[in-house]
Amino acid sequence: MRCCDQHLRRSEPATGSTCNEPVTPAPRSRRNGWSARPSPQQLVSYFTYIYLVVVGFGIYIPLLPSPWDSLAYGHLGFFFVLHLVTHIAAVLIDPAEPIVRARNYASTLPTFDKSQHAHVILDLHCKICDIDVGPRAKHCKACNKCVTDFDHHCKYMNNCVGRRNYWFFFVAVVTAAIGMFLLLLMVLFIIIEHSLNPAILRTAPQFQDYFHTCMSCGTVLSVQSVPVCPGLNNSTWLVFLPLAPVHTSSAGLLVVSCFTFLLTLVFLVVVIHLLGFHIFLLSKKLTTYEYIMKKRQEEKDRDLELGEKQSRPTSAESAKTQPSVDVSVDCDSSLPSQASQSSMEYQDERRELALRISMAMCAELKRLGSMTGAQWHEWYRNTSPSKDMTPGEDFGESLSWTGLQQVVVDGEQSREKSAEAAPIIQQPLASSVLAVEQQLSMDTRSESALSQQ
Fold first, then answer.
1. DSSP letter string over 289-323?
2. Minimal CA–CA distance to 128: which of 150, 149, 107?
């Protein structure tokens, strides 16, 4: 017999001795939150609800004085019952597409192949369910079905939240927040009164019957009076009133009250955060899935923009990598003397050349600006174009280079020589700028020729 060699996980018979590996069962869809085994979050929510109901209605409400106990039974009971009903409805309702709900959930579905399709839903058609879906539908991976107006998959309900069960889910969250808030106030009141005035918490008839004869000092107390005996020392309490009174100590009551207070506070913060988030989504007319995808797209765009900024060099880095040539003309600054100019040692020859040319331009402009009307007449008559120029030659360029070359030879006499060899043009500033550009281009070509040699 080979019973021990059989693999219980195999869903189809093995063909030959080579098929000894366990076979993965084919995927199926869930009908609701109870179709599969419960998730850990679902079990936590159920146990928390049961605990709060037991301690709230069995311990704390019977300790409240009249008429607060009746109000607590009515209001707290209403919200706890409404939460239970809406929670069960959200778990049981199937939010899938109508065609998916009409199918038999016992049948298996094909596994999604990423090598053939990039997305499960493409052009409003699901590749797994093989149906056409709406624009806000999504195929849930956990439930393995397409959900109409998919919002999110709630692990505390073990079911998807879509169009059909969204409002049940929302009401369950609202009632949970209100119920835990009322329970938190009630527990806080009991903890405070236990320390200040414990007699106000012992108004139930069961306390009077139990303390008719004081167990510590033997004092006989009347049934109508509030049993506050000095011998009791505030150490004897009754819980689970009025059906099953159980004797407990003061320390035990305080421990349970403090634990309930902290547990309720933690869950209340989480539920209020969830409620505020869904109120925000309703105001924006978005689902949780759409909001998450929008945030991911914004983060991706932000990362791409940050990467482009980091790839581009900053202004400081470009200034370090590329040598700058200062060709600014400062006509108001004084010309350097021969001693100061001879003491300068420039590392960049192009910068020194541009500085000397700008000095010559400033000197020429100052000289032209100081002329009177008669001197302008004389200068214009002397600088008229000669007849010996060749056709196509720029007379201003042919004469402007004479003054510029003399300035380069001797920087000390640049002002005098530029005045003697003034460019014979009607627009001296334009000719000087053109001379600067040509000289810089010639210097660049000479440097490239030297580097090639």
1. HHHHHHHHHHHHHHHHHHHHHHHSPPHHHHHHHS-
2. 107
> In which region does residue 125 sit, left (phi positive, over 0), alpha (psi from -120 to 50) or beta (all else)?
beta
Q: What is the pTM for the complete model shown? A: 0.61
CA geometry: angle at 407 spanning 402 and 411, to 5°?
165
In the block, which residue shows the tokens 């302008």?
376
Interatomic CA distance for residues 86 and 102, integer angstroms: 24
Q: What is the DSSP-derived secondary structure letter of residue 384? A: S
**Residue positions annotated with a catalytic role:** 154
Using CA atoms of 388, 391, 396, 401 in order, give the dihedral in degrees to the nearest 10.
-80
Indicate the residue type of 136: R
End-to-end Cα separation, the chain, in angstroms:
93
| pLDDT tens by residue, 10-22 | 444 444 444 454 5
Per-residue pLDDT tens digits for 293-330: 999 999 999 988 888 888 765 555 555 555 544 444 44
- In whole angstroms, what is the distance from residue 270 CA to residue 279 CA? 14
Q: Where are the beta strands (DSSP E) in 202-265?
A: 236-239, 246-249
